[in-house]
């Protein structure tokens, strides 16, 4: 094992072994997928950029795998729900991206730690959510030790671990905190074959719910294998017209808004709108003041505790991430193009060597 040492009194000295980094003009550089303008997949290109240096409370991770998630697609293309485009530009750069390296989830190895870090050490295998930091589509990234980072499940490879974070924590937070899911609940997952949907089906079954999955016929075997009790092919049937009611409807794709879905809720049912436009969020505030059926929106929390929970479920065989395709980082444009098409099953993985 290579031993890393920080020389904080000399900030010009390289923090990394030459085995792990390239040196140009006296600086450590790494390979990253960079986008310098918003737009189609072709705006992303592979570049050499400066390797990040961890602060005193941060860890430096050698990234082995990441994903192209819905968050990456939305940020890159500005394909956000109605009313949020201006907000996204203000958050990530009005005219061009302030953070040009996408990637909200990573799995890799801690190779260096700041002087104040106590929870992790070099050699630890971890997975994490980078959140608004982004930066996962690169050979290295830094995260605070109290951020959403946890040790990788012992039975997961890096590609599987990278898929646990985004869809898993989103589904978990909406079902458990916002939905208050209980055993015996009737749950419908709309968009059951995506990253959030495949996680929601498994988690709802874990919490003891009866699960109906809405997806295309082509994905019915997949969601049944994840534990769904029944499948509705949205090409052939509209779940809002079948007379069934549900305690929770989790809409992972934004095609089941409140006006369409409210009559399919039980007397105290909740529509969990993972994808909601600005009007839906204002409507949720109004509806939440009423008794009975409710519309619930929000942003999923990112916590190390939730990552550890998902890791335990995977280690006990209760939860498994679904991988559709894997691409090397050099194929990043192709990966974005596939996600843009809107037909991915589960997760699209980026392998970073």
UniProtKB/TrEMBL annotation:
It holds the Pfam family ADH_zinc_N_2. One of its GO terms (molecular function) is oxidoreductase activity. Residues 39-350 form the Enoyl reductase (ER) domain. Transmembrane segments: none annotated. SUPFAM superfamilies: GroES-like (SSF50129), NAD(P)-binding Rossmann-fold domains (SSF51735). This is NADPH:quinone reductase and related Zn-dependent oxidoreductase.
